[in-house]
Design a protein that fits this description.
Chain lengths: 686, 108
């Protein structure tokens, strides 16, 4: 604010023009803007913030007839802030309100409008009450810890999390203009010790009042204990968490929602509603179980299972804190940091020794278990030692290049669902470069051995590329980006190509991996019986076939709907299918396998235009039937399988009805209901 | 400067004969463009900024705008800088014009 000229230095001579102004504007036409055409236009007008709009006008709330908000010293002086001799219920009130604020902050609001509406947090060292003081200090530490975790993982967007601290740190306070005092900061151990001490005091008091059925002291102790455990769990990422007791009280002191309103930037658009306490409690309850689930990542030893875990975790739409925790639990430093380190190593001078990432080892293991290339087996009988060293060098270079795209892949899976789509598209560009590299590594390796080319690394990359491509296309369904008249080519592409390719990539990986095993077995023991070949990707291959059949079912049904005039088509001169098609598949254009272009789509699907819709419905029926029987072979179905089964069964029946001539002449568009599964809708006839 | 004085005279006496052709409302509004406005809103806040744009519903856009809290005892408090704002006509209580500064541009 220093650069703003104080208003007192400017002199104005105000002349009232209210009535003239309101008279003159009547000469304007409806919708006509009066403005200086050279300097100011509609575009500028659109970027103005609207006053008196509760969403845009942050200042509006300041003066709703309320007295000016008091800051900590003012409130104390005015006797509006209690500093000691609290009833336990009052302390519980303060703590629960603080927890509600933390939840609101974690849901994307600013710290200034949530947690720091608590005046006690402005000057924790001025609170004589030891319990409250320790609690406030612990909250500072907890906030730091959460912020640190989320910042390290780098999977937030502005809608997830506000990283701004508005100058609030332990030992400083922007409200009273205190400079930061480092001596007031406490260490993690000290903070935990402070809480422990208070816990002991409270437990003693609780024991004295043991006969009281509503023992508030033990409720308080539980809260302090929860705060401590939560803090420790975040510090050490994954200790067991205990839940804080469910007791909700209403008395509270010291919250001033307006206190930071004038700290906010002018266009601050957020109107902050603090989460009600019962919901906040539930949020913490769920947060604890989400963190526990994230902790399970540590048992994923293989990169593929870990990636599946990341994708599954993301599907459950977890909160920003648990998504961040997952990133940090899997990889340290976080995938984001690993990616940027790899990037700077690549841009560094040539010949510099490569930094060793833990992630390189993970990727090496991943390739090994997926395709088992000879170059990664400890001693290959097929190569001389010179060749081996040369081949190793190639492989190491390749793996080092893989670090960034794969780390980014994990990071993208941590972002919120809506943001993933664009990031997947960008990631495909990076994978395109890797594909070329993988091919040349494969060529060099087979050349060295003199064997026919074996696309080990190529297959491994292809597998991941296809998965990203599929995730990209499917996300459009989940985010409801496609119009119904576009569904047919989206499902066609998935059915005819992506899932088909994925099935064959998995098959190829299995046979390549099998060869590697045989090689080793043959060498190790000639006489021993050959081990029974396990099929590690059996389930994955099966699921691919299920998806392929589902997509095939939709595709055929959609073409039949189109032929029967059940789907409203846009006017081609205003909304061209070729343009839409090109746009939808644009990110797939840089990679191998090459993109299937629109004219190819037209050629390939031409014959179907003359097909009898009944035949198409029956074809679709068969696909859903096939998907269903494949799904039923799975002995331990998870939620995903159960959902897909329900969709497949229902659609089978619907298509059967349609094939039988049900509602043949109706042109009412069918409804696609995504409530059971986010990608595969249940077809409903209206 | 002459523009504004002329304007004031004209406001005081609508039958002013200095002007051969009476200006319509639009031209009068146009003269005020790029001048400082002081708008009081229904909630008591006062906005001071450069008048940039308006329409038939008296929605006013002010540039480089500052917000002053309820001005009971003079505008003593630090203003809050808002930048470009649109004030809906229905929330305007009064509009004042600063006649100490001539408009920045003499296009009209």
């Amino acid at each position: 604010m220093e650069n703003v000229v104080p208003s007192s230095e400017v002199t104005y001579n105000w002349v009232d023009i209210t009535s003239d102004f309101f008279k003159h504007i009547q000469d304007l036409q409806l919708g006509e803007l009066l403005h200086d055409g050279h300097l100011f236009g509609l575009f500028e007008a659109m970027s103005a913030i609207e006053m008196m709009d509760p969403k845009m006008d942050a200042g509006m709330l300041c003066n709703r007839g309320n007295p000016k908000p008091l800051n900590f010293p003012q409130a104390v002086a005015a006797g509006k802030l209690k500093l000691d001799d609290f009833e336990p219920s009052e302390l519980i009130g303060i703590m629960d309100a603080t927890m509600s604020c933390i939840v609101s902050w974690l849901e994307g609001h600013s710290l200034a409008q949530t947690v720091f509406t608590n005046l006690y947090l402005h000057q924790p060292y001025s609170i004589p009450n030891k319990l409250l003081k320790s609690y406030c200090i612990a909250i500072y530490k907890l906030l730091d810890c959460i912020k640190d975790c989320i910042n390290k993982a780098q999977v937030f967007e502005e809608e997830d999390f506000q990283p701004m601290g508005y100058g609030y740190r332990l030992g400083s306070n922007p409200q009273s203009g205190n400079a930061y005092d480092a001596s007031l900061d406490v260490s993690e151990q000290k903070c935990i010790a402070l809480l422990r001490e208070q816990e002991d005091v409270l437990n003693k008091k609780a024991r004295v009042n043991e006969e009281d059925p509503h023992n508030l002291w033990s409720a308080l102790a539980a809260r302090i204990r929860f705060t401590r455990m939560f803090y420790q769990a975040l510090l050490h990422q994954g200790k067991e968490l205990n839940l804080w007791k469910n007791l909700i009280h209403q008395t509270q002191w010291g919250f001033e929602p307006m206190i930071n309103q004038r700290l906010l930037p002018p266009t601050f658009p957020r109107y902050t509603r603090i989460k009600p306490r019962a919901e906040a409690l539930q949020y913490f309850d769920e947060l604890v179980s989400r963190l526990r689930r994230a902790w399970k990542i540590t048992s994923c030893t293989n990169f593929h299972t870990a990636l599946d875990f990341f994708m599954e975790f993301s599907r459950q739409r977890a909160c920003i804190l648990s998504r961040s925790a997952l990133q940090l639990l899997y990889l340290s430093p976080s995938p984001a940091t690993t990616a940027s380190m790899a990037q700077s190593a690549m841009n560094g001078p040539v010949g510099q020794p490569r930094p060793q990432h833990a992630f390189v080892e993970i990727l090496r293991e991943s390739v090994k278990s997926f395709v088992n290339p000879p170059a990664l087996t400890p001693k290959s009988p097929l190569m001389s030692s010179a060749q081996l060293i040369n081949a190793r060098e190639f492989v190491e270079n390749f793996l080092a290049r893989c670090v960034r795209p794969f780390a980014v892949l994990l990071q993208v899976c941590g972002h919120n669902r809506a943001r993933q789509r664009d990031k997947f598209a960008m990631l495909l560009d990076e994978f395109a470069a890797l594909q070329e590299e993988a091919e040349s590594v494969d060529a060099v390796l087979s050349g060295a051995v003199g064997s026919p080319p074996r696309a080990c690394f190529g297959t491994w990359i292809l597998y991941h590329v296809l998965r990203v491509m599929i995730a990209y296309l499917l996300s459009g369904l989940e985010l409801e980006l496609y119009s119904v008249h576009e569904y047919h080519y989206i499902f066609w592409y998935l059915y005819e190509f992506l899932y088909g390719w994925l099935v064959s990539a998995v098959g190829r990986a299995e046979s390549l991996g099998g060869e590697g095993v045989k090689r080793q077995d043959a060498k190790r023991s000639g006489s021993r019986k050959q081990k029974k070949r396990s099929r590690p990707y059996a389930r994955e291959g099966l699921m691919c076939q299920v998806m392929q059949n589902m997509c095939g079912g939709y595709y055929k049904a959609l073409v039949a709907f189109k032929l029967q005039g059940k789907i409203r088509q846009p006017q081609p001169e205003f909304d061209n299918e070729a343009v839409r098609y090109k746009h939808r598949f644009a990110p797939l254009s840089v990679l191998t396998p090459p993109q299937v272009h629109y004219h190819e789509f037209c050629e390939m699907t031409q014959p179907l235009q003359y097909e009898n819709p009944v035949i198409l419905y029956l074809g679709g029926c068969k696909h859903f039937q096939q998907a269903r029987s494949l799904l039923e072979t799975i002995s331990v179905p998870d939620q995903e399988v159960t959902d897909l089964l329900k969709v497949a069964k229902t659609n089978f029946v619907v298509l059967k009805l349609l094939a039988g001539g049900h509602k043949r002449d109706s042109t009412t568009p069918p409804d696609f209901d995504f409530t059971v599964h986010r990608h595969f809708p249940i077809i409903k006839l209206m | 400067m002459s523009d504004t004085t002329e304007l004031k005279n004209e406001n005081d006496s609508p039958q002013n004969l200095d002007l051969q052709i009476p200006l319509d409302g639009k031209s009068k509004l146009r003269k005020w463009l790029n001048m400082n406005f002081r708008i009081e809103m229904t909630d008591g806040r006062v906005l001071i900024g450069v008048f940039l744009c308006t329409d038939r519903d008296a929605n006013v856009i002010l540039g480089a705008c500052s917000e002053y809290l309820a001005s009971g005892e003079g505008e003593t408090e630090e203003p809050r800088v808002l930048g470009l704002v649109m004030v809906p006509g229905r929330h305007i209580v009064s509009i004042q014009l600063d006649d100490t500064t001539p408009p920045q541009n003499y296009y009209y």
